[in-house]
Amino acid sequence: MLDKLMLFTPLPKGFLRHPAHLMAFGFGSGCFAKAPGTWGTLAGLLLYIPLQPLALTWQLAIIIVAFVAGIAICERASRALGVHDHGGIVWDEFVGFWITMFAAPTGWLWLLWGFVLFRIFDIWKPWPIRWADGHVHGGLGIMLDDVLAGVYAAIVLQLSVLVVQ
């Protein structure tokens, strides 16, 4: 009964004091016991808002840096917890969502649609996302399935743009 009432995932004392762990856990957004990936994506959406007006080359550079850094960040947090792809590790959701929104039109409707699409593909995990999730390990494995989900969601989002125009 008490487990159902827990709002936050228990972590080792002082775990989030390490900058890599704090980033891996989405600055705390991944600490929610229920749906940490959704909370992490929401935090990624909020962090994306100031990126949205940037030129596409800057957005792409930020996504690439966040991806490469994410491999190390997620690997470090995963090893510290002794769990591969702990549910609270949500840096990969940030990057996956940012990929979804790359070159997307501005506006809240598109942000919401991108959020929904990314969550669908991240949860559903169609091929090759599910394969990558089960076969690629370490920090790259943690990042890769969300990157692929972001690519799928970006394709559907861009097709939606074409339909609306």
| Number of distinct helices | 8
By DSSP, the count of extended strands is 0
Instruction: Identify low-pLDDT runs.
Output: none
Overall mean confidence score, pLDDT: 94
Helix content: 55-70%
Shape: globular
- Report the portion of residues in β strands: under 5%
Radius of gyration: 16 Å
Q: What is the terminal-to-terminal distance?
A: 51 Å
Structural class: mainly alpha
Structural domain count: 1
**Element pattern in H and E:** HHHHHHHH
Which descriptors would you attach to this protein?
mainly alpha; 8 helices; 0% strand; globular
Describe this structure in words.
With 165 residues, the chain is mostly helical. It has helices at residues 2-5, 19-24, 36-48, 56-81, 91-101, 108-124, 129-135, 138-164. Helix 5 (91-101) runs parallel beside helix 8. The mean pLDDT is 94.
Summarize this, please?
With 165 residues, this protein is mainly α. The protein is built from 8 helices and no strands.
Write the layout of secondary structure elements.
Elements: H1 2-5, H2 19-24, H3 36-48, H4 56-81, H5 91-101, H6 108-124, H7 129-135, H8 138-164
